[in-house]
Amino acid sequence: MPEGPSIVILKDLIKELHLGKPEVLEVTGHIKNFDKDRLLRQKVVDFKSWGKHFLICFNDFTIRIHFMLFGSYLINGRKKTPVKLGLIFKKDELNFYTCKVDLLEGNVEKHYTWENDVMADEWNSSAAIKKLKEKPDALVCDVLLDQQIFSGVGNIIKNEVLYLTRIHPLNKIGNLPPAKLRALVKEARNYSFDFLKWKKENTLSKHWEIYSQKICPLKHKTDKKELGKTHRQTYFCDKCQKIYK
């Protein structure tokens, strides 16, 4: 599943085409939940990202694309795989595959709280800490994946942030010292931008300290378990990462 930084890369790639506000000349794909012809002859106002969502904004509605687990895209190219949504402009085309596509009515600002997005300029760390304190019994491995608190954080970022802050994934939020809570929020944003940099360099996996690793940087054997309510694969080191009580 693409994490927030990967969606930012997609947004930047499209904006590098210098499309401006292009008019949709042709729409392809298999959309069942809305009439795709509504996009015809409409001009794109902006391309945005919010967490794991890619947003194509028009005057009075927005197309939301969620890549789920196996989604992908091609810019000015096509796959043999059936396209879920294809947009053809005067000089360029965008094709999206194996993803979830929705139409959001009205201004996109009504649908999203941008301060939740760990990569947005509007990111609000104080608001994130406040929301965390409202979930004292929640496990830290779950709340890092809560898109209403850490929009854009996925499983790789979760694992790396917990190791870098030396916080065991089975900690309850209410048991974390204030300094650790602040470190968790700060590192979620910092690591997301590191992720973006390394992803662009194609060196991301070379920087993993705990994710998909059999030993941690301090040469301890790591554990791999499906933890929390999310049951997502979690890599951790019992010796490096502390449980607070």
From TrEMBL:
SUPFAM superfamilies (alphabetical): N-terminal domain of MutM-like DNA repair proteins, S13-like H2TH domain
Matching Gene3D superfamilies: 1.10.8.50, MutM-like, N-terminal (3.20.190.10)
Catalytic activity: Hydrolysis of DNA containing ring-opened 7-methylguanine residues, releasing 2,6-diamino-4-hydroxy-5-(N-methyl)formamidopyrimidine
Keyword DNA-binding on entry: yes
KW Cell division (keyword) present: no
Family assignment from sequence similarity: Belongs to the FPG family.
UniProt protein name: Endonuclease
